[in-house]
Amino acid sequence: MKIDILTLFPEMFYGPLNSSILKKAQEKGIITINYINIRDFTTDRHHQADDKPYGGGAGMVMKVEPIIKAYEAIPKNNSFTIMLSPQGRKFNQKLARELSQKEHLIFICGHYEGIDERVRQLIVDEEISIGDYILTGGEIAAMVIIDAVARLVPGVLGDEVSAEEESFSDLLLEYPHYTRPRNFRGLEVPEVLLSGNHKKIDLWRKKQSLLNTLFRRRDLLKVRGLTKEEKILLWQGFFELAMLIDEIPERSE
Ligand code: 4FV
């Protein structure tokens, strides 16, 4: 996958996108990331990339020309251009999977009050929002999307399996994860995970995912629905939870 980022602050990306998995993905040549400084495409001697809003009002608006010139300078093949903005389509794992199929993504990062509307009209394929809050710029939103999308590109994550059975992949939250030590300050690792019985372990993990999702994100279950087996697993989970109540000592009023 080729990624081009149009921004006034390329330095904001160097840390997050040049570490760990994304760094390795670039070293392996699976992902290529180019940073294009919009200010390099300004023509006036003050290199002005923003200006006062027509019609008055606070703040500054990013100018259309430098962005269009920067965009036109990018070699394109099956390119998909994304503008980050609060009024965009809400980003989620489903959209991440869609974008991970693309060959070439171009991100336009706004700043200040926003970007001249004609940029959206001329070159934007999709506006995307990472959430209902206002950022100082689109850069961090672009980083969030690049991180979530890049890890779904084949070859970026160690074994693809992990991408398959993770949160939201099946609209279920994750099951609890444990590693050594077996006991930490009195907190034990669940016996079943030490049993080596993978059928039992998979069942326990599915039950935990269902319980987790029911307690924390019932909205996801309402969208996803439950199979008969899953309902039985959940009831079993409830029953086991209820049994725990009996273990709790009585307390005088
Ligand atoms: C944003 C978001 C976001 C709005 C004005 C940048 C800021 C400034 N982008 N999801 N939420 N952008 O708040 O994507 O230009």
Short description:
This protein has helices at 11-17, 20-27, 64-72, 93-99, 117-123, 139-150, 160-164, 198-216, 218-224, 228-247; strands at 2-7, 32-37, 50-51, 61-62, 79-90, 104-108, 114-115, 126-129, 183-184, 187-188.
What can you see in these coordinates?
With 253 residues, this protein is an alpha/beta fold. 40% of the residues lie in helices and 17% in strands. It is built from 10 helices and 10 strands. It has helices at residues 11-17, 20-27, 64-72, 93-99, 117-123, 139-150, 160-164, 198-216, 218-224, 228-247; strands spanning 2-7, 32-37, 50-51, 61-62, 79-90, 104-108, 114-115, 126-129, 183-184, 187-188. Strands 2-1-6-5-8 form a 5-stranded parallel sheet. It has a 3-stranded mixed sheet with strand order 3-4-7. β9 (183-184) and β10 (187-188) form a beta hairpin. The longest helix has 20 residues, at 228-247. The termini are far apart. Ligand 4FV binds at residues 84-86, 110-112, 114, 129-131, 133-135, 137-138, 141.
Could you tell me the radius of gyration in angstroms?
Answer: 24 Å
Mean pLDDT: 93
Main sheet properties: 5 strands, parallel
**Structural class label:** alpha/beta
